[in-house]
Amino acid sequence: MVDDFRKGPFLLRKLLVVCTLIGFIGFAGCADPVARQRTIAREQAVAVTIQSLAVRERQRPSEVRNDLLSAGQMIRDAEHQRIEDNRIFAHDWKQEVQRWQKRQPEYVEEAGKLFGGDMQRAHATAVQMID
């Protein structure tokens, strides 16, 4: 598999060069034991950092593969959810239409009460509803 993330190994090389330079500078001419101990502690800390970065780089291909597999599963789950949502919507819509059809006589009766057979009043109300 070709690694498309080329910055990782380059970064590790850079850190290795910096660590080596610190080592050479630390051992070049410093006779102070406290300074030497601090330099050794820094080198060890950098070595731990480089190790953790190397482990991270080795894990990256499997993480990308896992991400791709989980993305496929997420797409399948979303498709199943969409189908379920559409089924629920269709069911609710059908119930709403049936409810409306069942209550239609009540609507006609209520409209008759409101308008009371007065066509002028009905016409004015209809115009207000349309506006």
How large is the radius of gyration?
A: 38 Å
Mean pLDDT: 78
Instruction: Count structural domains.
Output: 1
CA-CA gap between termini = 67 Å
Give the count of helical stretches: 3
Uncertain residue segments: none
Q: Please describe the biggest sheet, giving its number of strands, its sense, and whether it closes into a barrel.
A: none
What portion of residues belong to β-strands?
under 5%
Structural class: mainly alpha
**Element-by-element helix/strand order:** HHH
Shape: rod-shaped
Helix content: over 70%
- What is the β-strand count? 0
Layout of helices and strands, plus pairs?
Elements: H1 7-29, H2 33-115, H3 119-130
